[in-house]
Fold:
Amino acid sequence: MKKIFEKYYSNLFLADRLFAALACCVMLFILKFFFKWLGEIPEIATLVIFLLLAVDVVVLYRNEKGIEAHRFTAKRLSNGDENPIQIELQNRYGFGVKLRVIDEIPFQFQLRDKDFKLYLKSGDVKSIHYNLRPTKRGEYDFGFIRVYTGSPIGLVSRRYNFDGAKVLPVFPSFINLGQYELMAISNNLTEFGIKKIRKIGQSSEFDQIKNYVGGDDIRTINWKATARKGGLMVNTYTDERSQNVYCVIDKSRVMRMPFEGLSLLDYAINASIALSKVAMLKQDKAGLITLSETIGTVIPAERKPAQLGQIMQVLYKEKTRYLESNMEALYSTIRSVIKQRSLAVFFTNFESLSALQRQMPYLKKISKYHLLVVVFFENTELKSLSTTPAKDVEGIYHKTIAEKFIYEKKQMALELNKYGILSILTSPQKLTINVINQYLALKAQQRI
Structure:
């Protein structure tokens, strides 16, 4: 009995039209006291309504599967990106129906359930499309697709429940990796915001001998091959390969700052995955080190096919900590793990010049053995505040403080460059582009 109740009665809802009809019947009974000529009209009207109600219920429940609905998503969602969600609906009733569709989305979005209304003719199939943008990594629980439908009589509605309890993992941003793949192989990198870098010197790794064509450097002519072939032949060279590229991610409290829903750690993770992808496409090896008050994960640099998936799987669960990063442990780990000169891209943030100076001794030691690039962040809110005209004394004070902090950030970059440490001071939304641009520039200049 309980199952029958849940199957039929728990999913049956009275419509507004039924309450309006019953209200009219009540009015007829009231009017009958004053107008005797109404006779049995109120009773007949009430009987007709209940007969129509019974017919409505039978029509809705006669077809066991009058409506079909399914949710289509990717196997995993991409953090910080718009992820497409599709709901496909089919009407198997012999008449057209109006549907109200509620998709129970995960609580992390802090939104009311997605609510859609549409009309389906008999046999029609329609799709609902919308996007979700997660801002935290982890597991996201989707609930039911609730579909409310009614017959043309419209006195009651029946609820259908589909696709309940679906859990999707939210991984670091991977939707735009295809775009960065094009950046790695395209000659027109300015389309992606990558500036062209003049290539310095000649790469030392020989590639092949080919026929001379207009525009080839005449200094690369191979005279021995030319003599054998009877036509001009030139040597071609390629960028040196199999260099180690390590992304070092700071997970301490300085990376908790939010920007457009994502923390600085999330931006650093997304940029690390994109850089690792591009480095592997350029035939380099990608590795990872994470740290906070202790060393977290260490993935030695490799170029095997599963390397990027391993990096993503590790970064999927990383979270910020509440303490400062242990730079001494980082230096010891780099010295013990990385045996040859490599590119180390250190994603961190500095709250003040004194904070940088506390870490400077370790940064200088790391830069003695490896090519170190320190990536830290602009405060875009302060930048916006500094460009806004002040309206009163308090506004002048706020603007002055903002300009002071902006100037201090630039001083940090100069302080790093003074000791031969490369730096990238960037806004969070331009982080990935700027980091990949720096990597390609270093490759073009043969510094790695």
Residues 248 and 346 are 5 Å apart (CA to CA).
